[in-house]
Specification:
The chain is mostly helical and about 290 residues long. It has helices at about 1-20, 25-50, 55-75, 75-95, 105-125, 130-135, 135-140, 150-170, 175-180, 185-190, 195-215, 220-230, 240-265, 265-290. Mean pLDDT is about 80; it is low at about 130.
Length: about 290
């Protein structure tokens, strides 16, 4: 009886998934999830090793604030959020270089300030044509439904930006490796460290804005950091960690998205919980087996 019930449940889940995938918006969500997770997995390794892990948290709140301003003014949220977030990422890097303010302090101020301003604007102008942002603030903060409301133009924008991010990592892999581990050695080797730091900051801004659709503003750091940390529990080499992180990011995001569809749970929270389970499993594997 138990076997037949389990088989029945599995068949029901499979038929439900097949039914869901007959809708274009679900296919859009899956494609965007794979691309966003892949970019986050690649970026996360660099940010963790450069000790910029919390920059994702600060930039996500900046993106939320920018989207709120765009919503109030009647502009497309992505059109405003993308350049603003990239610009702030570069300014954070400049502030750190010139030691105008410590990096963690700047991120803390940006996180609290941007989130407060964005939420205040959405409450002051609730009747503005702000689309899904003001219609469901929880979706913007936790990614509860926004991933399933992507239009075809959103997907093409995601494909273009993700392609640029992946191309940057593939073409500049060796320079990124050098800048990540030893900026002094990279400089002596002829690598333009400052330029690549700016590019990494710009890529961070792009990935953060894209990831808001999947996990929301408050959970982005988990999507960026958890796959990298999981990979580091098992592997030692930079290349192996990057590849493993990208694979885990994609797999975890797909499983989380499918779980959210089947269980009607918030997309962002489901994805993050899956990544927590993966981190726990890889931590156990890392303790039981020597790292490769």
């Amino acid at each position: 009886m138990t076997i037949s019930v389990n088989a029945l449940l599995a068949t029901g889940a499979w038929s439900t998934l097949v039914h869901y995938f007959s809708y274009p918006f679900v296919r859009y969500a899956v494609l965007a999830s794979v691309l966003i997770a892949l970019c986050a997995g690649l970026l996360g390794v660099v940010l963790v090793l450069k000790r910029y892990a919390m920059i994702g948290d600060g930039l996500s709140h900046v993106a939320f604030g920018a989207m709120a301003v765009a919503a109030v003014l009647g502009f497309a949220p992505m059109v405003v959020a993308l350049p603003v977030t990239v610009a702030v990422a570069i300014l954070l890097l400049l502030a750190g270089e010139k030691r105008l303010i410590k990096g963690d302090s700047a991120i803390a101020m940006l996180s609290a300030g941007s989130l407060a301003v964005g939420y205040l604007l959405l409450n002051l102008f609730p009747s503005s044509d702000s689309g899904s942002l003001s219609g469901d603030v929880c979706a913007s903060l936790f990614g509860s439904t926004s991933m399933l409301t992507l239009s075809e133009s959103d997907v093409w924008l995601c494909v273009g930006l993700s392609g640029a991010v992946i191309g940057f990592f593939v073409l500049c892999y060796h320079r990124i490796f050098a800048v990540t581990f030893d900026e002094g050695f990279a400089t002596s080797s002829g690598v333009r460290v400052r330029v690549y730091n700016f590019l990494i900051a710009a890529v961070s801004g792009i990935v953060i804005v894209l990831a808001m659709k999947l996990v929301g503003a408050l959970l982005i750091s988990a999507l960026v950091i958890f796959p990298a940390l999981s990979a580091m529990r098992v592997f030692r080499s930079f290349r192996a960690v990057v590849i493993c992180s990208a694979v885990l990011a994609v797999a975890g995001s797909l499983v989380g998205l499918i779980a959210a569809l089947l269980l009607s749970t918030p997309t962002g929270a489901s994805v993050v919980v899956v990544h927590i389970v993966i981190l726990a499993a890889f931590s156990l594997i890392g303790k039981l087996a020597p790292r490769g």
